[in-house]
Structures are given as C-alpha cells and as structure tokens.
Specification:
50% helix; alpha+beta
C-alpha cells in the first residue's frame, strides 16, 4: 500500500478564468488601499518641500489629477466607514458584502481558501452563497407567494472598489507619464550590462555548479518504496532547485543597486540622458532574462535523469502521467437531515467519515455542477472515476483485506432519495419507482440479446426475478466485459450506473469505470438550474469500519496528457518565484541598503508560506484566543496566561483593540505577502495531475498584478533619492 502522501490534499482550488472578476475587485480594494496611504504620504512630503520643488516634482497638471483622485478616494472610504458603523447598528439593512463573507466550517472538516467573488452589481438569490442567510425584508415590502425579495445593494464593496480604483489611477498617472520618456534601447543596454556583471562575479555559476549533484534522482542515494520512487524524485529536485535559485536571485538582485551607489558607478549613468527608472527596469529585466534560463535548463536535465533512472512500474503508474481531473463538491447525506459526516478525532481534521454497514444510510455524495461534453464520447466508452480514501478501523478486520465500497453514479435525470426514518433498510432508492422498474426490465431485455444469456437458465422464468438478477449482474461490469455495451445503453437512457463490491485499501488510489453514455445523458435535455449534472454516491458496506474522504479524494478523469510536458510546466511556478524575489529586491534596493533589502525580501517571501497560519490565528482572536494587546497587558501585569480575567477597564480595552485593531492589522499584513502557494505545482506533478495552461496564465496575471504596486513604489523612490554627486 502507498503512504498517506499518495493522496493530493487540496488546501485551495487553483485559480481559473472565472475567478478574474472577483480577483480584480479584491485587487482594487487591497492594492488601492495601500496606494491611497502612499498618496497621502506623497502629498505630505510635497507640502514640506519648497514651492519650486513642489511644481517640478510631477508637474502641475499631474498634481491636480492626483489630488482629485485622493479626494474621490477619501469620499469613498469615508462612505465605507459610515456604512460599516450603520451595519453594526442594524445588520442587513445597509449593504453588507454578502458575497465575500467568511464561510462557516466546511462539512468535510477542512476550510479551504475561498477565492474572492465579484459583488459590484447587486445580488440575486441565485448568486448568494448557501451559507449566507437572507436578511428579513422591510415591513412595507409586499411580495407575492414564492417571490424572492431583493437583497440590499452591496454599497460597501462598490465604495471600496471605486476608492481603490481612484487611488490606483492617481498613483499610476506619473508612472504612465514617465514611461513615455523611456527608451527601450537604453533599458536593454543596462539589462545586458547586468547580465555581464553577474557572469563576471561567478556567483550565479557557482550556484549552478552546486545544483548539479542534486539533479540526480534521490533514489540513487536513499532507498524508497517502489511506488514512491518517481514521486519523491520530483519533490526532491523541486525543493533543492527552489532553495538554491531563490537564494542566488536574492543575493544578486539585493546587492546590485546599493553596490552601484557604494562604488559610485551609478554616477556615470545618471549624469547622462538616462531616466532613473530605466536603471531599475534594466536591472530587473537583465536578472530575469538570465535566471529564466536556469529553471528551463534544470527542468530538462532533471527530467532526463528521472527517466534514465528507470523507475519502477508501480511508480510510473501513479506519477508518470498527467490526469486532467474534474472535481466536484462533497456533501455527506443520510436518512437524518443534519448528518455532516463523522469526526473520528484525528489531529489533522481534513477528512470526515461514513460508517460501514450494508444497511447504513450514510453516503458521501460528490456533486458535479457541470461535466465536459467530451466525456460522452470517451475512448472505450468508459470514463475513469478515481479515488483515494482513508480507512478508520473500529475492529482489526481481516488481514491483507481492505473494505468494500459501492460507487453509484447518476445524472440529473435520475434523482435519488434517502431512506425514510421508518425504513429498516439503508439503501437509497430512485425518486421515481416506475423508472427504476423500467430500468430493471430493460436490463433483462438487453442482456438476453447477448448470446451467452439467451439459453442461460438463470435468466429464464419469472420476469421480475430475471430483472433483479440482470440488475445485480450489471453491478460488477468492467469495460473488458461484453456486457459493457448493455451498461452504456441503459446509462444513455436512464443516467444510472452502480459498481458494487470494490475493494479499497488505506490511502491507495483506486478507480472504477463509468459508462460514457451516462455523461451523454447528463449533458442532454434542459437541466434545472440548481441540480448537479452528475452525482457520485459512495457507500461503505464493510461492517465495523469507517471510510474517510475529503473533497479532493474523488474525481472524474477527463483525459491523460504527457508527464514530460507537465513536469516542465511546474518549472513555470519556480520562474514566477524567481521573478517575484528579483522584482522585490530591485524595487526595495532603490532606497534601502543591501542588507536591509535582503532581510525585507526574506521576511516577505518567507512569511508568505505561513500566511494560512497567520490568517487562522487572526480569525481566532476574540474567540477563545488572546490577541497581541491582551498578551501585552498580561506581560506588563506579570499574569499567567491561564489566569482568570478580571474584566477591568484595561482588559476590556485590550480585548477591544485585539478584536478591532489587531484583526484588521493582520488582514492588511496578509495582503502585502505574495501568494506563493498559487505558483507551486510540484504536488500536482508528483501525484500525476495535469497543470493546465489556464492555471499558468492566471499565474502570470497574478505575478504582474502583485509586482505593479512595487514598481510604482520603486519609481517614486528612485526619483526621490539623491544618487548624483
């Protein structure tokens, strides 16, 4: 059996093109807020300068435009503050941003990162998330029976976005005017000079030489299980390559401009007709061009070494592929309406569990809102459904034996219902009993068309008994069996298929095949708006055992692509990391010393890996956990952390500052950190999942969006710094 690392734990869903509106709105709100503070600081500095310098800083027309943007932003933020206070007084009446309210505890036991959603154009009942309860309508609003009432308009989201947009335009106006003065010929000359300097320093070459031994597969040095050879080799190369190249990038980029100032080499440049920002841009492009070769070279060489090491067949089966997975939403259901899965008390509460028994009504239901139309014509008329479940044993069970699982797949045209509270059987039934009877009769008729069943005495006699035997026979059919054509015929008509008695082992990837005609049935007809196109019901039938699963543990496989191409795609994420640290180093070094720049970039990039932990700690403030102000108060009074609160005025003030100020400060701090997890694809490649070009395009968009405010900062800093003698 494989190790627990064989399961891909999805802490967040990758960004897709549909997320762009919500991400753009969040970008306006976050980046615009920081730029608004920067604009206020800019005008404060301008007021302290002599009048002549004020006129020549950015020009009179640009100063007026920037001042107008600041005024618009101030009005928007003031209106937002008023709405927030009004919302506290009367919740639900003044336009709270319902689309981006923190969701409740995930029924699977693990709260994933939620992508911001676009919420500027008002709400409809269909748009609102399920966990947002509708606010009560005004008393004077007359509604027809069943008519949905209008939701409050999201003025808070609108004001924040407009204020952020105004701040962004105001800060970017001088930058846009300055960009017209740039000459790319001079920029490229500085970039070439930067690459030559790196080559002469030999630092970059030294890191590449040190990296060479680590490109060889780790299995040459350490023993691993046969099924883990390729997986661990991919992770090993990724970690070592990332650490060494990022270290080289930080060291070279952080010391570039400060060393130019220290050695006075920059004086020979700024005294010529060269824009100062051309120096920053040239340095950045030169380092990016040079470091772009390293991930590509390392990716190609390490891939050759991995293939040449001849990994085991078990390892190649699990990792040397690029499965295009279609994922759904997980829901736990049973005859009881409040069933949300069983918590077995494990420390890492990622999975919830269902009880195992033939008569158990507990089901894990994976719902797929849509499915690709191409699945209806999959090769071999079969679509794989792959899963990796956790087994929690209540008894020892049989040695070397897993648990039995039934997998039922239905389209929206074949709805299922749970058993009633009064029913002894836990079997889920069709919502339409007549359709179930017709399915059984058609199953018997189709089987009797096959030569091996025409004279079979088991399928002769009472039609009802024959129909029941036919249904049972089709519950264990695979694509290699001649009955697979019958299964597809029935699935095309009824949208139903079930595989019974699949043996599952702990954390071992397994798969069953579903007739492709079922997906043809799911994409046909007029589907109700709220109905999932396809549902997968998982039932554990082994008594005294429990089966655990999370949302990422079961998926449909649309197709498989090249592992080599997928492996090289992961290097794009490493390239994005390199561009991030180079951009931060170059922009911050326009004003800070080399060592300070190095420490700042290491802090920003390093803390970004712990952003989830920081966010969790911030959310728990005021909910049974003390914040920084309350902790400081305990330290000053020499109190034990477990001491009972006295509810003094000082303690109440500290608690209020924690809930209001500290939580707000933590959220703002998280917005400064780069979203490094969005660029990390090694876990996808090592587990054999495809990285789509859509995800890589979103990576590039996120990279440019994050660096843009930093380059605005670098533009102002390099213009305001005294670098000439």
């Amino acid at each position: 059996m494989t190790t627990p690392f064989a399961a891909l734990i999805l802490e967040r869903d990758p960004y897709v093109l549909a997320d762009l509106p919500g991400l753009f709105q969040a970008y306006l709100q976050d980046a615009g807020g920081f730029l608004f503070v920067g604009l206020l600081f800019f005008f404060l500095v301008m007021l302290l300068r002599p009048a002549q310098q004020q006129q020549t800083a950015v020009g009179k027309s640009l100063s007026l435009f920037m001042l107008g943007c600041v005024a618009v932003a101030m009005l928007c933020y003031a209106g937002y503050g008023a709405l927030v206070m009004a919302e506290w007084a009367k919740p639900g009446q003044f336009g709270a941003d319902l689309m981006n309210i923190k969701p409740p505890q995930d029924p699977t036991g693990y709260v994933k990162t939620v992508t911001p959603r676009f919420s500027l154009l008002g709400y409809t009942d269909r748009d609102l998330p399920e966990y947002v309860r509708p606010f009560p309508p005004p008393a004077n609003l007359k509604l027809e029976p069943g008519q949905p009432y209008p939701q409050p308009y999201p003025w808070q989201a609108l004001l924040l976005s407009v204020g952020g947009l105004a701040s962004l335009l105001g800060a970017a106006a001088p930058f846009a005017a300055g960009m017209r003065k740039l000459r790319w010929r001079r920029v490229w000359a500085i970039a070439v000079l930067s690459m030559k300097e790196v080559y002469r320093n030999r630092v970059f070459l030294a890191f590449l030489i040190v990296l060479v031994p680590f490109l060889f597969p780790i299995t040459m040095f350490l023993p691993f299980k046969a099924e883990d050879e390729l997986r661990m080799g991919v992770k090993w190369v990724s970690v070592i390559t990332s650490v060494l190249l990022l270290l080289a990038g930080v060291l070279l980029a952080a010391f570039a401009l400060p060393n130019d100032v220290k050695s006075q080499n920059i004086y020979t440049i700024v005294t010529k007709p060269v824009e100062r920002f051309e120096i920053v841009l040239g340095r950045f492009l030169g380092y990016v061009a040079l470091f772009s070769l390293a991930p590509l070279l390392v990716g190609v060489l390490s891939l050759i070494f991995l293939v040449a090491s001849k990994p085991s067949e078990a390892s190649r089966k699990q990792t040397e592929t690029a499965r295009v997975a279609v994922r759904g939403k997980l829901q736990f259901l049973s005859r009881k309406s409040d069933f949300v899965g069983v918590d077995v008390g494990r420390e890492f509460n990622y999975r919830r569990y269902i009880g195992g028994d033939p008569n158990s009504s507990q089901r894990a239901v994976y719902q797929f809102p849509t499915v690709p139309s191409g699945m209806g014509s999959a090769p071999g008329q079969a679509v794989p459904v792959e899963f990796t479940f956790d087994i929690y044993r209540l008894t020892k069970g049989e040695e070397n034996k897993g648990v039995d699982v039934n997998v039922r797949v239905t389209s929206w045209q074949c709805p299922q219902r749970p058993p009633g509270l009064e029913e002894r059987s836990g079997e889920w039934d069709w919502s339409d009993p007549a359709a179930r009877a017709n399915y059984a009769a058609d199953a018997a008729a189709e089987l009797l068309k096959l030569p091996q069943y025409k004279n079979d005495p088991v399928f002769q006699g009472d039609p009802a008994a024959v129909a029941g035997r036919a249904v049972n026979r089709l519950r264990n059919v695979t694509p290699k069996d001649p009955e697979w054509a019958v299964v597809n015929t029935l699935a095309r008509k009824y949208g139903f298929y079930e595989f019974a008695g699949k043996e599952v082992f702990d954390f071992q990837p397994e798969r069953v095949f579903v007739p492709a005609a079922l997906f043809e049935n799911a994409t046909g007809g007029k589907k109700p708006a709220n109905a999932p196109a396809v549902q997968v019901f998982v039932h554990c039938t082994t008594s005294s055992q429990m089966l655990g699963m999370a949302e990422g543990d079961l998926y449909l496989i649309e197709r498989e692509q090249s592992f080599a191409q997928n492996y090289l795609k992961a290097t794009f994420g490493l390239w994005c990391w390199l561009v991030l640290v180079i951009g931060l180093c170059v922009t911050l070094s326009t004003y800070l010393d080399a060592v300070v720049t190095l420490l700042c970039v290491v802090f920003l990039f390093g803390c970004a890996f712990f952003a989830g932990y920081i966010q969790e700690q911030a959310q728990n403030i005021g909910q049974g956990q003390s914040g920084p102000f309350a902790s400081l108060n305990q330290l000053l009074q020499a109190k034990s952390p477990t001491a009972q609160a006295e509810n003094t005025a000082v303690e109440k003030a500290a608690d209020t500052l924690d809930v209001v100020g500290a939580k707000w400060g933590f959220r703002r701090l998280l917005n400064v950190f780069p979203d490094v997890e969005a660029f990390y694809w090694t876990h996808y490649v090592s587990e054999g999942f495809n990285v789509s070009f859509e995800h890589l395009f979103l990576n590039l968009v996120l990279l440019l969006a994050y660096l843009f405010p930093w380059f605005l900062l670098g533009y102002y800093l390099i213009r305001g710094r005294e670098v000439a003698a």
